[in-house]
Amino acid sequence: MADRTADTQELWPQLLQVIKERMRFAWILLSQNASVLFYDGTTLTLNMFSPGAYDTLINSDCRRVLDEVLAELLNPPPAVELLVQGKAPSPPDPPSPEGPTQAHPPGAVPAADTSPEPDETLTTILHLVLAQTAFLLYEDGNSQAAALLADVEDIDHVPSDRSEEGEDVALIVPLYLVARFTQEVLATIQPLLVHVAARHDLLVDNVSAIPALPETGDDWRQSLQEKLINKTSPSQYPSPRAKEAAATLSRDGFAFDSREHMLVYEALKRAQAQLPQDSTIAIFPLPRARVGSGSTCAPDFLVTASGRVGVIEVDEPHHHEHFAADATLDRAWRNSGIAHIERILLKGFNADHEVDALVRQFLTRLHEHH
Fold first, then answer.
1. CB contact at 8 A, 289 and 300
2. I want to staple 205 with a disulfide (CB 3.0 to 4.6 A). Which of 166, 265, 286, 309 is the partner?
3. How far, in Å, are 152, 192, 309, 321 from residue 148 at the CA level?
4. DSSP string, 116-177
């Protein structure tokens, strides 16, 4: 057979580009973990840079995508031989029927095993994977997903219920942040995290976000009663929105807890698109802030424009019942440097142009505020 290795190495970037269009994770895995060693027109030999990358390839849809693209670009479709660091992958050693044995000289005392426990080692690797994934997301321009990973309190592994696949990884985050890890955000994080894990010889199949468990003690009943009393006290500022955790609506990686919030967000985006790049606005949905009184609050929208900062609160029809609390919170915002606070009631508003008019009114007042 003729040696066609050089031609195939030149074709490899084009093949990877086609794979990228089919499955981005397969492209990440192969572009950074595989190279063409040999092709004779019948068999294509690829070298995988690590055992983890090899395991990920053969235990995922990446292998299927690779075979499909090779069949389209090479004629006849080649058989694929995979090497790991230049060598044929070795099968796992079968367990000994007698179990592990360890020989010691007569009278010798076995040395204490100071190697870390398997779970301890895996936890260390997972934390490294988390950190490197966050930095890769930042370097790729996805600052929002990187910031979310920076708020992850812990990372845990759960054996997959799909025996032929790898670990399910859970990102353990504060309860109010769970809703921010939308399907869209997780779809951005997962391929990179899976790739980074493979570089550390760890096969990860799925990534999810779960709430961190609260710390409790023997006096938890008394502590909870105090919190319940403080939460309902009229002298307190409104507590951070508990409904954040139940948010099910999302746009652009942001989570929203009502259709009205999404309408205002889309109206702000339309206003943003009409402004010149050198004089535009920034939109911060549901940011969290600590005001001077020490309370933690979350406005519906914080908007910056021409050196001024404004807040939009989307009120519900029955919101008049909270007038006193709203007035207290608005005063706290103003004392903290917020130039303008606008409360929008969207009852009866459905058409985009109606919401656009409310947003334009807010931006006009924000620009005119002194």
1. no
2. 166
3. 7, 14, 23, 34
4. PPHHHHHHHHHHHHHHHHHHHHHHTT-HHHHHHHHT--EEEEEE-SSTTS-EEEEEEE-HHH
Measured on CA atoms in the order 283, 355, 296, 254, is the torsion positive or negative?
negative
pTM: 0.39
Q: For the residues of 237-279, what is the DSSP string, one character each? A: PPPP-GGGGG--EEETTEEESSHHHHHHHHHHHHHHHTS-GGG
Q: Is the preceding peptide bond at 78 cis, omega within 30 degrees of 0?
A: no
**Bridge-based pairing state of the strands 79-84 and 43-48:** parallel
Buried b (16+ CB within 10 A) or exposed e, 131-160: ebbbebbbeeebeebbebbeebeebebeeb
Q: How far is CA 59 from the centre of its chain?
A: 23
Task: Kindly report, residue by residue over 99-141, the tens digit of the pLDDT.
Answer: 444 444 444 444 444 444 445 567 778 888 898 898 888 888 8
Does residue 303 register a pLDDT over 90? yes
The Cα 189–Cα 142 span in angstroms is 10
Place of tokens 């399910």: 168
Q: Which token pair is 158?
A: 């759960």
Q: Which residues of 290-318 are buried (b: 16+ CB within 10 A; e: fewer)?
A: ebeeebebbbbbbbebeebbbbbbbbeee
Coil, strand or helix: which one is 365?
helix
The string of pLDDT tens digits covering residues 84-100 is 887 877 665 454 454 44
Under 8 Å CB-to-CB from 191, ≥6 apart: which residues? 24, 25, 28
**311 pLDDT tier (thresholds 50, 70, 90):** very high
Q: Which of 84, 19, 73, 17 is nearest to 45 (CA)?
A: 84
Nearest-angstrom CA–CA distance, 73 and 298: 53
Q: Quick one: tokens of 334? A: 């103003």
Handedness of CA 296, 302, 304, 308 (dihedral sign): negative
